[in-house]
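Same chain as my last thread, 307 residues:
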Amino acid sequence: MSQQVPHLVYETSMGRAYVGDAIEVLQDALADESVDLVMTSPPFALSRAKEYGNQSQDDYVRWFQVFADEFWRILKPTGSLVIDLGGAWQKGHPVKSLYQFELLISLCRRPEYAFYLAQDFYWFNPARLPSPAQWVTVERVRAKDSVNYVWWLSKTQTPKADNAKVTGSYGPAMKKLLETGTYNRGRRPSGHVVSEGFTQDRGGAIQPNLLVVSNTGNDSPYVDAVKREGRTVHPARYPDGVPRPFIEMLTDPGDLVVDPFAGSNVTGRVAEILGRRWISVDSDLDYVEGSRNRFDSLQIEISEEVS
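reply #2:
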């Protein structure tokens, strides 16, 4: 992968896509405390090297800290940092790496500053293939690994957030309860007290911290368009359903969302749909150029490359 001089590749009415080193781009493009949300899925610390580049488990925390320093600078006091991290196994052994937890602890225990862990989320991908194959399908000594860790971090204990913006549909039991108003009030064995207000319709079910989102790679308009152009399809793309609840819950229309490891720019596309301003950065020009196709179906104007 050749080193790219940082520059703007394309822009829409809401966002800008850059190629180059993320630190250089963020330092040049963003003022202190100007960003509402950094939503990203950085390269994981996998035991096998990937074509898009990834760091070793031993070096991961040190490598990421440079980016964390910049995230702290650009985030507003009420802003949030959300990091999607896949699991990793120790090479040649059926035991897990602790790199995600080591990173989390390091971000929350820095002497210079400390993020708060606002909440831990978990992305369950029902469509993930059985892996690692050696331990799951060959020797049959481990269960299928199908959950990513998603750390929601903040600069203060009270970041901007509103879970009323990400409610889901009530289940059949809750719908029946709302219709009849009949339920067993009082104290539960757990100590929880179910009050009269339990049957109030609050507009939908509260978002849990488990995201159940299948990732089948079925974003065919993007894939087909990139292949027609003779470009490389980014091999590690999370679906819209991963960044969407965080962008909705942690930002308002017009707020600024940044993805410094943008890949095929799913984050930017979701931000555009939701009316948030966005900045994306990736070090691979082929990926950035290919990500233009994310916006074709939105029927928005994309300006040409700016040197």
